[in-house]
Design brief:
Length: 312
């Protein structure tokens, strides 16, 4: 048996064990008290599926503790069962449930969480909206997020190469370098779309941040669906059917947030997507992206910390 095959088997087993260990911990959230709801804004909105109910409850309860007020809404991706919905409504009084098929994405693609993004834009007409994925956790104070809500400023979850709002062509040149480095076999729709940003009309006057859409704040009154549709049309002209692939929504989200007035990029030293090479730091917010979700057991340990804050 080759070394590479052995390594892949070990990695797969480690992920399987890590997921089982996390799921066992996450299930304890079902025995925590329901959220104590107050206030009209912000609106916390997430797309939720059947397999993520417990993880989502950990995520929303930890974030709600950090912000302290607001309403909660979810987009049912179609997989939630009646029992799932009963559990969610028990833990989140006044929960708003949006059915994915009832959301009109206009000229934007369907699927790939575009329904979530277009619904967010609709909600910003009268509310500040925070989007968070089910695989996020808050384990401490998040004053930067609270301040953005108070000041009605949008925010982005930056990355090691996306820590400031910059002209779109700056990121396009960076993405074009990635394409040359990785070749045609590893091209994602996100990489292709970012590489095409310098082809937008008046590109130098447009902004962009290479960020994660797993956590984002949308200021009240700062967005129009027509602007997102226009950007989607431009990307479809450049990329064709690839624009309908999973991952294009993140580009649309990053683009409209980057071009909103006063958008803040959250400091990487405190807010990040967890990766093994992440620089050391005490981070009250982490997004546990799929590739490294269960690496080193950190997701499980952070879940235990959240449960402790919830009194369980």
């Amino acid at each position: 048996m080759g070394n590479s095959l052995v390594a892949r088997i070990k990695d797969r087993l480690a992920r399987t064990w890590g997921k089982k260990a996390f799921d066992k911990v996450a299930a304890r959230v079902l025995f925590t008290p329901p959220l104590e709801m107050s206030g009209h804004s912000p609106v916390f909105l997430s797309m939720v599926c059947h397999r993520d109910v417990a993880a989502y409850l950990l995520a929303i309860k930890s974030l709600y503790l950090g912000v302290g007020q607001g309403r909660v809404a979810i987009v049912n991706d179609g997989s939630l069962t009646p029992n799932d919905l009963a559990i969610l409504r028990h833990h989140i009084p006044t929960l708003i449930v949006e059915e994915i098929d009832a959301i009109d994405t206009g000229r934007c693609p369907r699927g790939g969480t575009w329904e979530r993004l277009t619904r967010i834009i609709e909600l910003t007409a009268d509310s500040y909206v925070i989007q968070m994925d089910a695989d996020t956790l808050v384990t401490g104070a998040i004053p930067e997020v609270v301040q953005c809500v108070r000041d009605n400023l949008s925010f982005l979850l930056g990355t090691d190469v996306g820590q400031a709002v910059e002209p779109a062509p700056v990121l396009a040149r960076l993405a074009q370098g990635w394409i040359k480095q990785f070749g045609q076999t590893r091209l994602t729709v996100g990489m292709l779309a970012e590489a095409a940003l310098d082809g937008l009309p008046q590109a130098e006057q447009r902004n962009y941040v290479h960020a994660s859409s797993g956590f984002a704040g949308f200021a009240q009154g700062a967005f129009r669906l027509a602007d997102l549709e226009d950007f989607s049309d431009l990307m479809r002209t450049r990329l064709g059917e690839r624009w309908d692939e999973w991952g294009s929504e993140q580009i649309g989200s990053n683009y409209i947030l980057s071009n909103a007035p006063g958008t803040v990029v959250l400091p990487l030293s405190r807010y990040a997507c967890f990766e093994p090479h992440l620089p050391p730091g005490e981070r009250p917010f982490l997004h546990f992206i799929g590739s490294y979700r269960f690496t080193r057991g950190l997701y499980r340990r952070q879940a235990l910390a959240v449960l402790a804050r919830l009194g369980h």
